[in-house]
Amino acid sequence: MIEPLFWLGLSLLLVATSLTAVLVVAISAFQELARAARSAEKLFDTLSRELPPTLEAIRVTGLEITDLTDDVSEGVKSASQVVKQVDQSLDSARIQAQNLQAGTRSILIGAKAAWKNFTRQKPARRISDRTSSNEKPPLRDLREREVLRPENRRIKAELYRTNEGYNDAASWENNFDDED
């Protein structure tokens, strides 16, 4: 009977030894776990102190970026309006310059024609050169007179400009005046 008591005692001894070994290992593990818990607690405290202001700063920065984007888009819109106004002003100035150029050209042509008329030597008329009032002038002279009329000169100038390559009616009129 001793034998079963021996085996019982031996098994109790082995269980006690195993439990002691587990407790020794568990104590060191529990100590490490406690250290990790303290570190986690410190981390969570730091996060709870630092995270809300950081998130608030990020939110404010996002709002400021939105405001700046709006300001930039408004600036771009106003700049495009200024560019359109400048473009319209340039177009208007170009049109006014063209009108001024045409007016100046007309004044110069008129002054040139007046000067030619003023400085032209008038031929002495002879009585024999005049046609009598009952005679009709020859047809060729009548055509020449029609061409010399100012209202017909413009029409003829346009026709000659397209046919003979004159740049404008004024240059044809100048050319026509030179032929006189």
Keywords summarizing the entry:
about 180 residues; about 85% helix; mainly alpha
Characterization of this structure:
- 86% of the residues lie in helices and 0% in strands.
- It has 180 residues and is an all-alpha fold.
- It is rod-shaped, with a radius of gyration of 57 Å.
- It has a domain at 107-116 and 140-180.
- The mean pLDDT is 80.
SSE diagram, text form:
Layout: H1 2-119, H2 139-148, H3 150-164, H4 169-179
Helix pairs in contact: 3-4
Distance, first to last CA: 164 Å
Please summarize the sheet with the most strands.
none
Uncertain stretches = none
- Proportion of residues in extended strands: under 5%
- What's the total helix number? 4
Determine the fraction of residues in helical runs and give it as a percent range.
over 70%
Q: Give the beta-strand count.
A: 0
Instruction: Specify Rg, calculated over alpha carbons.
Output: 57 Å
Order of helices and strands: HHHH
Please, what is the average pLDDT? 80
Shape descriptor: rod-shaped
Supply the helix-strand structural class: mainly alpha
Write a short abstract of this structure.
The protein is mainly α.
